[in-house]
Write a structure and sequence with these properties.
The chain is globular and about 75 Å long. The protein has a domain of 202 residues: Rossmann fold, CATH 3.40.50. It has 415 residues and is an alpha/beta fold. It is built from 15 helices and 13 strands.
Length: 415
């Protein structure tokens, strides 16, 4: 096989184990309705997916082509996603007592968030399988990424988002040529519309974990991370969680990397972070449950966390428990303050979901769950440039001819 040939071998249901042919268009399991996962011939992939070979490849999704779900290179869409920096955060770490705090800055991806990875893979595979139009519900980031990759690949995109989604996401999708519909409700309400209309209208539903390929794009976060760490895993990964595809994908990646001989059996502790206003996974974790019932009245300023129910709940919870990890909910006021502190201390203008992860790290260090010398990676899943409405306004305006300018400056921003 060539260095860039996919070793995809099949599709398996994560719940009932049903096997499916990889080269057909699939959503969820035909038998039980649960999440489908892509399988690979890892012995075959290992022949070419080696450390020394990777050094010569570009940093995008298709760097890891052998364990990605697109066979024809002509269908591997890219906008330069991936290869995001893993940045030391010494000042932020010192403020919360972590000497080895790192931030994986996913806001550098196209459209400003980690969603570029999942939708890049999903749209590429859908295009390879003949799809003409994709559809999905989204709180914002996924809609923007889906619209961008659909435009890149010449597909139509139909997106449904809560009517109170940040304006930038609505504008982004329209600018990229998508059909945009606003929904009176939350992302699960938007998902209901997609689910009930997709088959009749010829849309391929690329909702979170409602098809097998988004998780494959998201798993590249985990592969990149260990490669950037010199083929070792950190002690803990702290991850802002809505639908949880990133945790599912990264956990899958670590298993595949071990089978490929690229890492050993060690695993990072996986930490789910949600807002106290919408914390179905945290609640299920605390109750010892494997499924997370619908969270009623979901409300948070972090749109990526406002996901009241997740189809992959059992996969998220399995990964957290198997890793010795935990799940923690953070109030909006605290995550917003941590977002601001991250920006000011490290020059990283991040989304509010990231502030939740930073505050979670602080709380876990204070409780002793995290040790001072642990290598801890916070996933900065999105850019703060998409959430400028959350930054305080009320800027002082100056008249350069006013003799009181100095006094105004002193009053507005006292030393």
């Amino acid at each position: 096989m060539t260095a860039h040939e996919s070793a995809m071998s099949g599709i398996i249901c994560s719940a009932c184990g049903r096997q499916e042919d990889a080269d057909q268009l699939l959503t969820t399991c035909p038998s039980c309705g649960k999440v489908l996962l892509v399988q690979y011939d890892l012995e075959r992939a290992a022949r070419t997916l080696r450390r020394e070979v990777l050094a010569e490849r570009p940093w995008n999704l298709w760097r890891y082509a052998e364990i990605m779900p697109v066979r024809d290179p002509n269908h591997r869409l890219t906008l330069g996603e991936g290869g995001t920096p893993l940045l030391p955060a010494p000042r932020l770490g010192a403020s919360i007592g972590l000497a080895n705090l790192l931030v994986k800055d996913e806001g550098r991806n196209p459209t400003g968030s980690f969603k570029a990875r999942g939708l890049g893979a999903a749209v590429s595979r859908a295009r390879e399988l003949g799809v003409q139009t994709i559809a999905l519900p989204s709180a914002g980031n996924a809609a923007g990424a889906a619209s961008a990759y659909a435009a890149r690949g010449g597909l139509g995109a139909v997106v449904f988002m809560p009517e109170d989604a940040p304006p930038v996401f609505k504008a982004e999708c329209r600018a990229l040529g998508a059909r945009v519909y606003l929904v009176r409700g939350l992302i699960n309400d938007a998902g209901k519309i997609v689910r009930e209309n997709a088959a009749e209208r010829g849309w391929f539903d690329v909702s979170t974990l409602k098809e097998p390929y988004r998780a494959e794009g998201k798993k590249t976060m985990g592969i990149e991370l260990v490669e950037q760490l010199g083929w070792r895993v950190p002690d803990a990964i702290i991850y802002p969680t809505g639908g949880g595809t990133g945790i599912v994908g990264m956990w899958k990646a670590f298993d595949e990397l071990e089978q490929l001989g690229l890492i050993g059996p060690e695993r990072p502790k996986m930490v789910v972070v949600q807002s106290t206003g919408c914390a179905p996974i945290v609640r299920a974790f605390e109750r010892g449950e494997r499924h997370a019932p619908l969270w009623e009245g979901a409300e948070t300023i972090a749109p990526g966390m406002r996901v009241p129910v997740a189809i992959g709940d059992y996969l998220i919870l399995d990964a957290v428990r198997a890793s010795g990890g935990t799940a923690i909910a953070v109030p909006d006021a605290e995550l917003l303050a941590a977002t601001q502190r991250t920006s000011e201390l490290e020059g990283l203008h991040v989304s509010p979901e990231v502030g939740g992860a930073v505050r979670a790290a602080e709380l876990l260090r204070a409780s002793g769950w995290l040790q001072a010398t642990d290598t801890v990676v916070v996933f900065a899943t999105g850019s703060g440039l998409l959430h400028t409405e959350l930054v305080a306004d009320g800027y002082p305006t100056l008249d350069p001819n006013d003799p009181q300018v100095g006094s105004i400056i002193d009053a507005a921003y006292p030393a």
